[in-house]
Structure formats: C-alpha cells, structure tokens
C-alpha cells in the first residue's frame, strides 16, 4: 500500500480570481498553515512540490530533500492568470460572464483547457505511483494546488465536472489517498481508443485501487 498525502498551499497575499501560474506569495497565515500541516504529517519517503513559490518555498523550509515536478503546477488561466475579479471584469466583462456560465468549456485566451489540465495531472500521478512501487516507497507527500486535487478526485471517483466544486479544499487542506496495485491488465487509452477523455483518465489509473481516506478541508 502506498499512502499519498496531497497538500494545498497556504493562504496567499494577493486576491487573484484565478491564481494559476502567477507568482503568488504566502501570507503570514499561509506560512503558519503550512508549518502546522508539515509538523503534523508523518515523515514521508518522498516529497514532491509544484514549482510555484507558494508551494515550493514553505516545502523547502521544512524538507531539504525534495523533487520539483512541473506537472503538479496549477492550471494556467492565460491572460486572466493572477488578476483579481475586478481586473478580469474590466479586461473582459463578456468573457467573464461566459466563464461564470460555462466554467468547464469556456476558453480563456492563452489558457490551458480543462481536459488538457486533467490529462496532465492524472498522467503525472500515475508516474508517481509507478516510481513509488519501483523503489518501495510507502509514503509520498505532494505539495500542490486546489485545482490539481479537484481534477484528481474527479478522475479517481469517476465524477462529473460539476462535482469537482462540491468538495471544500481550502488553504492548507490535506487529501490522503491509499493506493494498492491490482492484478488486472492495464486499461489504457491506446488499448481502448473509443473511450472519451474522461473515461481515459479513469482507465489510466485502472491498474490501481485508489481509496480516498481523508480530506481535511483547511488548517
């Protein structure tokens, strides 16, 4: 069994509407939230961090040996990335209206699509499990973002897009998964080309039994 703890970064100083790839810094509360999480967590065998400073900086302060993995970065929101709600409204009021009405299909200029984002996250998580099995690692800690945790939950639990926002994943939240290998053959997108993207994401992890053990909403 592999235990994987996903940790969302702490509260940030900015008031970004869609924070994405923006270089946000943690507030004093955010730093305290991360310290609390790390001090309560059992020592992991492998620590991974998103390259975003709001994840990487507090993780480096606590763990000297870690892996920076860019695929655990938040979704890129293009020209809206890091802007406040009022700034987005001023820049593109019609676009904002369309986004609020169709958040799963509206394309923000220069942004990463939701499906591409989900594919990225599911794919890199599978690589983490493969690496953990190869090197007999029992406990992995991944410091990342709320969006990453939501799309991964969606794929693991087989949920629709709307269900992603029915989970409270606040700053400093912890999501704990237990992952077991199973003996059935891997069902991959290449072996089942008729699958849609959502089904492919579930199939990508089908050689593992993954159980949501705990979701601590915030610290």
Structural features, described:
This protein has 219 residues and is of the alpha/beta class. It has a single domain, classed as Phosphoglycerate mutase-like (Rossmann fold). It is 37% helix and 16% strand. The protein is globular, with a radius of gyration of 17 Å. The two termini are 27 Å apart.
Features:
Rossmann fold; globular; 7 helices; six-stranded mixed sheet; 219 residues
Short description:
This protein has one domain: Rossmann fold (3-Layer(aba) Sandwich), CATH 3.40.50. The chain is about 35% helix and about 15% strand.
Helix content: 25-40%
Distance between the termini: 27 Å
- Total count of strands: 6
Low-pLDDT residue spans: 184-193
In sequence order, what are the helices and strands, one letter per element? EHEHEHHHEHEHE
Spell out the blueprint of helices and strands:
Elements: E1 2-8, H1 28-40, E2 46-49, H2 53-62, E3 67-68, H3 85-91, H4 93-101, H5 114-134, E4 139-144, H6 146-157, E5 174-181, H7 197-204, E6 208-216
């Amino acid at each position: 069994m592999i235990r994987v703890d996903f940790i969302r970064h702490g509260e940030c100083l900015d008031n970004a509407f869609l924070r994405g790839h923006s270089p946000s810094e943690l507030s004093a509360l955010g730093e305290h939230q991360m310290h609390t999480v790390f001090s309560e967590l059992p020592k992991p065998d492998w620590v991974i961090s998103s390259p975003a400073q709001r994840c990487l900086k507090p993780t480096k302060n606590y763990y000297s040996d870690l892996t920076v993995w860019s695929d655990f970065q938040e979704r890129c929101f293009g020209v809206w990335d890091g802007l406040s709600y009022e700034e987005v409204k001023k820049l593109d009021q019609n676009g904002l209206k369309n986004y609020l009405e169709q958040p799963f299909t509206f394309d923000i200029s220069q942004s990463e699509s939701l499906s591409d984002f989900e594919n990225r996250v599911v794919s890199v998580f599978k690589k983490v499990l493969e690496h953990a099995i190869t090197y007999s690692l029992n406990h992995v800690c991944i410091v990342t973002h709320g969006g990453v945790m939501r799309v991964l939950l969606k794929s693991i639990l087989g949920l629709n897009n709307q269900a992603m926002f029915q989970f409270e994943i606040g700053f400093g939240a912890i999501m704990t998964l237990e992952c077991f290998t199973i003996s059935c053959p891997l069902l991959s997108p290449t072996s089942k080309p008729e699958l849609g993207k959502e089904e492919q994401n579930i199939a990508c992890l089908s050689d593992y039994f993954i159980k949501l053990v705990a979701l601590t909403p915030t610290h």
